[in-house]
Automatic annotation (TrEMBL):
It comes from the Bacteria. Pfam families: TPR_14 (PF13428). This is Tetratricopeptide repeat protein. It comes from Sulfurimonas lithotrophica. InterPro entries: TPR-like_helical_dom_sf (IPR011990).
Amino acid sequence: MQTLTLANIYELQGLKEEALEIYKEVLKKDPANSEAKIAIRRLSGIRKKFLNVNSEMKEFFIKMDSEIEINEFERWLLKSWN
């Protein structure tokens, strides 16, 4: 069952795409649901912001396992956000 509670849990766990899909389903069933509308706007903005994320760095992030790699990724993040 697609509920706001489940979407909130997914969002808190970092599963933004899954949460977004649930919010959209909730809104289809209840077009006046303001919480779902707000969440969709918020998560859609996040998705747009990260649409062009460097896929190479994404893979690097997933696989990194040393302090040196973590530091390299942090430097890349700081450079990317400035």
